[in-house]
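Holo prediction — alpha-D-galactopyranose.
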Amino acid sequence: MKQIMKLSGWVLAACCSGALMAQNVVVSTPHNSLVLKAKEGETPKVLYYGGRIAESDVQNLSATVVAHNAFPVYGMNCPSESALAVTHADGNYSLDMMLTGTSTREENNATVTVLEMKDRVYPFYLNLCYRAYQDADVIEAWTEIRHTEKKPVVLRQFASAYLPIRRGNVWISHLSGSWGNEGCLTQEALTPGLQVIKNRDGVRNSHSDHAEVMFSLEGQPSETNGEVIAAALCYSGNYKLRVETHDDDYHHFFAGINEEHSPYTLKKDEIFVTPELALTYSSEGLSGGSRNLHRWARLHKLANGTTLRKILLNSWEGVYFDINQEGMDQMMKDIASMGGELFVMDDGWFGQKYPRKTDNSSLGDWIVDTEKLPEGINGLLRSARNHGVKFGIWIEPEMANTVSELYEKHPDWILKAPERDPVLGRGGTQVVLDLANPAVQDFVFNLVDTLMNRYPEIDYIKWDANMSVMNHGSQYLPATEQGHLFIAYHRGLEQVWKRVRAKYPRLTIQACASGGGRANYGVLPYFDEFWVSDNTDALQRVYMQWGTSYFFPAIAMASHISAAPNHQTGRTIPLKYRIDVAMSGRLGMEIQPKHMTDEEKEFCRKAIADYKRIRPIVQQGDIYRLLSPYDRQGAASLMYVTERKDEAVFFWWKTEHFVNQHLPRVRMSGLDPQRLYTVRELNRVEKYPLAVEGRTFTGRYLMEQGLEIPYSHRMESHKQMGYSSRVLLLEAAK
Ligand code: GLA
């Protein structure tokens, strides 16, 4: 054995046995390794993906494990699912790739390894790329495709990555849902056949199914134990994840851009870069997979992922389209008085020829409606300054209404099929702008740029997107490239986002798309957070935020206290429960404060002060999910623990309300067994403290026994509530 190169976190090792030379490429993060067999002239194979592997074990892999092609291509093994399928310039449908070389390069905190491949016959090239982080256990995999054939090659299938998942009893956990019910968790055993999780919305790609999955390798999923592989496709557009369980009993996982209605004509020398698939392995169950992804997200993927978020009031559920200077001023005053730090004016502030009174006009006309706001944005900024809060604003830049000055001026800027009237969206008049068109890209960038130039005090933008691509037709792309529409839209959009971020790196931007339509790691590098759902009902949020937390950290999950009865479900939930749920994410409010009683405002003021205390723990800590609402045991619970394990916040929410219903005891997790933690309840509503209040327990006791949580709140009878919840702060003795 001869070692030819060793870099921190990455190893290239060559082993010789007689005339045969097999070279292993090891891609490693602190606790994960991916091993590929990479011999020049042969097809690269995956030998191993799991916990960080010792060099001595790497040497045995080739001879002892089943090797799978690292990137199955179509044409020379037709019955299997493939990652890449093309039609060459001469009409040949097949590919046969061999390794021509490997290379590495160092990036900030990561090493990129590239396996370079070429077709044995055609001048068609494929790079398999792997980025291994050195401070987070994530490997990102993607491809670069290129050719020098005489005429264009058509890409018919172009996954980002392929991974063989071990044989046998493997379970998949994935999210699905719909408007108002995003992030629902489904967990099921992988069975023979093909499972496809995909999106074709064109604009929003996480309302229904999500582009992230977790595989539990040892059967039925557990939050705390067992081996897990988590995967997240980092792409803002249409995607497709496939898991094929073969007659060989392996589960073959493919992830990438959804190629349906998207054949891509690749010109000579053009490089087609696929989006990254982020992979992580954990032996600490599903929560372990989440912690790995969250850490990577905070450090590398989410905009400003290590900056604590402000506590805000958003105007939407408080006033809807009824915007005016006085009303905004009053809301700013109210949120400031409760200790909030930011006010966000939602939809309804713009349009002059066509003022935005409801959802059927004005998108595209991003000029202040001076009827509603005679003093314009300056008046609002003045109010914000007076009340000592920051100011944010809502826009929906990718869209127009047919009732708008923009559409009158640029009817050629919208997506629509030739010879046909467009299918219309929200309000019966909404259309999607053609982001493939550079003039539209400039328009969208200039909207943000102009706002920020004129009003540099704007601190936050809520970037919404409320329509699917309902019309296949770009008025910009040539007839021969209509198949590029979905891809070109997202490339155009990403270009705009890159320009915005290059110029305004510290601006807080929320990704909203009819609620949770843009919870995705293709979006998040440009956004600080996303709106989890338009549904703010606290009980349903327990379920949605639970699911969403599988893949996304709390700092990115906008979670607002709203009114009772709730505007989406009509359910009346006590303020305590609404606060206790909202505090488990990025806390905000979405309510008309002037309709709150003084007592309610005082409760929120205290909760906001306490949230400031726990904000670093929730927003930067490690998540430990303890009791799943999806297990229907009557309660749900999770906690966040700081990296130093000196502080933690424990959340517990009842999810069912039956007399004498027994609830399970919850054992804590993630604490230091040796340390002593003092328990303090936050958002207390009872006169009498919990029996555990102020007491000190070892981490071991809390993790082995857990605490006795009363099933209900001991209130005076007229205050008695069906809902019960607890937030406990645990502080370790210094
Ligand atoms: C979408 C968003 C909401 C709100 C409205 C405004 O539905 O999800 O939060 O901003 O648009 O029209």
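READOUT: The chain has three domains: 2-301, 312-620, 625-732.
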